[in-house]
Design goal:
Largest sheet: 8 strands, mixed
CATH architecture of the largest domain: 3-Layer(bba) Sandwich
CATH topology of the largest domain: FAD/NAD(P)-binding domain
CATH superfamily of the largest domain: FAD/NAD(P)-binding domain
Structural class: alpha+beta
Distance between the termini: 20 Å
Strand content: 15-25%
Bound molecules: flavin-adenine dinucleotide
Number of domains: 2
Helix content: 25-40%
């Protein structure tokens, strides 16, 4: 393959290998287009591989099979209630594509999905209390054979430099593994790891290829940028005004530094929402990296003055935004009664290691605890006393914790405002973490990247966190990042198929 101008030639080049990238690559390759997936690191899947793989695509056969009843019209109402008139065209495109995309994916023998209850994140018209998202079932490692080693392992094993356990691949690993199996089976797709996109090649106003270091790769029909956000770039976070810290993102170390966004901007692409991220509380782990923490079923979180400032059980992006508006440092205060962390964390945390590393402080009394985390003992004690009073009455008069179905989902329907009074007491430092940034290239309903005058740049498409999300500053429900990444990658490939030269 190739001539003097190109090292290799493809119809479609996809930058990145998260869920959107892989779904787009599969759509292209199964439509007969020669497709290359370029991945910067040695492993495929990015943050998508770390994820819980919840996918929020309403109105599909998965919800139908689960007997959910209406999930499309209610989703339209729900998104309208949250987003108003903003991004109506992209929202409608997303809703229209969801059923077709899932039908396309499930046609492949390697791919299937199952409904998994997880409440939507806002009390708004159209909400389904048990949500409408779904996940792929586990995937036995053996089914992937030699390809298994290409899929990024779960976050704890990956950070420790370990590969997959011999157990089935779960969650995001299953999703990426299944998409990889399907892509490989088309015979039209290749994955090239350790091949970062570094630039875009334009001829006569059209993107016709990419640079990957010294390589020049032709993309005769189109380039899809789905290479994550810029969560790991200190400079871009600062320029955009994203809260938190590049060291506190949950994305794989150093992977998502906004390369694809910057390459597109260099050829005239426009950007939006650069101050936005999918936020979450994070607990620091012994290696200084965060653990995404959600589903608080006990304990309380205090700010730098020792006071509560929010309903701790809020959906994680909403809690993250409360943290951004408050003054840290933040601490989760809990006691022996919860028998460890009263929440879910990814990766899971070992209390003894947390205490030994100093990220959790343990004390026999609240006064001592306050002293050790530099809070006024009076402030912390009165906050806990007031909170314990709410626990006794069963009503959080300050922040209404426990009143929403989401709050009670993780406590199995039991109260999540539980008195903190049984020593030893713990204070775990909480930082403002994120699951990735959500601002980036502005795109139209077909995933076409727009220039500064709102015109599509021929041959150039974007999806996932490389693009500015149609949800603006809102995280409507579980699986929106991955669901929308896949939907717009799929639409991009449909546009490539329809319209390319
Ligand atoms: C623990 C956890 C659980 C989550 N659970 C869910 C969930 O259940 N549902 C959901 O919807 N979301 C979930 N999220 C969020 C979601 O995983 C991410 O927002 C989403 O996967 C991002 O997809 P992406 O394709 O934009 O980026 P990624 O999945 O991060 O993929 C980007 C890829 O591009 C590569 N890359 C970067 N630069 C280049 C370059 N120059 N050239 C080539 N490749 C490049 C990266 O190495 C990476 O592999 C979760 C996140 C975490 C951390």
């Amino acid at each position: 393959m190739g001539n003097a101008r190109w090292d290799d030639e493809y119809d479609v080049v996809v930058a990145g290998s998260g869920a959107g990238a892989m779904a787009g690559a599969l759509a292209a390759a199964s439509g007969g287009l020669r497709t290359a997936v370029l991945e910067k690191t040695a492993l495929l899947g990015g943050t998508s591989a770390y994820s819980g793989s919840a996918i929020w695509l309403p109105g599909t056969r998965v919800q139908e099979r689960a007997g959910l009843g209406d999930s499309a019209e209610s989703a339209r109402a729900y998104l309208r209630a949250l987003l108003g008139d903003a991004e109506e065209e992209r929202r409608e495109a997303f809703l229209a594509t969801a059923p077709e995309l899932v039908e396309f994916l499930e046609k492949d023998p390697a791919i299937e999905f199952r409904f998994q209850a997880f409440p939507d994140y806002f009390d708004a018209p159209g909400r389904l209390d048990m949500g409408r998202s779904f996940v792929p079932p586990e995937l036995p490692v053996e089914e992937l054979g030699d390809l298994a080693g290409l899929v990024r392992p779960p976050v704890d094993r990956d950070r420790a430099g370990r590969g997959h356990a011999s157990k089935p691949m779960a969650q995001g690993r299953s999703l990426i593994g299944r998409l990889l199996l399907a892509l490989t089976a088309t015979g039209n797709g290749v994955v090239r790891t350790e091949t970062p996109l570094t630039g875009l090649i334009v001829e006569d106003g059209r993107v016709v290829g990419v640079e990957a270091g010294s390589l020049r790769l032709r993309a005769a029909r189109g380039v899809l940028l789905a290479a994550g956000g810029f969560e790991s770039s200190v400079a871009l976070r600062e320029a955009g005004g994203v809260h938190g810290d590049a060291n506190w993102t949950m994305a794989p170390d150093g992977a998502n530094t906004g390369d694809a966004i910057e390459a597109a901007v260099r050829i005239g692409a426009s950007t939006g929402l650069l101050d936005q991220a999918w936020y979450c509380p994070g607990l620091l782990t012994p290696d200084g990296r965060p653990a995404f923490t959600l589903g608080f079923r006990g304990g309380l979180i205090v700010d730098g003055s020792g006071r509560r400032f929010a309903n701790e059980s809020l959906p994680y992006d909403r809690m993250g935004r409360r943290m951004a508006a408050a003054q840290g440092p933040f601490h989760l205060v809990f006691d022996a009664r919860s028998g460890g962390l009263p929440a879910i964390s990814v990766p899971p945390l070992a209390p003894d290691d947390q205490v030994a590393s100093g990220h959790w402080v343990q004390a026999g009394t609240l006064d001592e605890l306050a002293g050790r985390i530099d809070l006024s003992p009076d402030a912390l004690t009165s906050t806990v006393e007031r909170f314990n009073g709410f626990a006794e009455k069963g009503v959080d008069q300050d922040f209404h914790r426990g009143e929403d179905p989401y709050d009670r989902y993780f406590s199995g329907g039991r109260p999540c405002v539980v008195a903190v009074g049984q020593p030893p007491f713990y204070a775990a430092e909480v930082v403002l973490s994120d699951l990735g940034t959500k601002g980036g290239l502005r795109t139209d309903p077909d995933g076409r990247v727009l220039d500064g005058t709102d015109r599509p740049i021929p041959g150039l498409y974007a999806a996932g966190n490389t693009s500015a999300s149609f949800t603006g500053p809102v995280y409507p429900g579980p699986g929106i990042p991955i669901g929308s990444a896949m939907a717009f990658a799929y639409r991009a490939v449909q546009d490539i198929t329809r319209n390319s030269p």
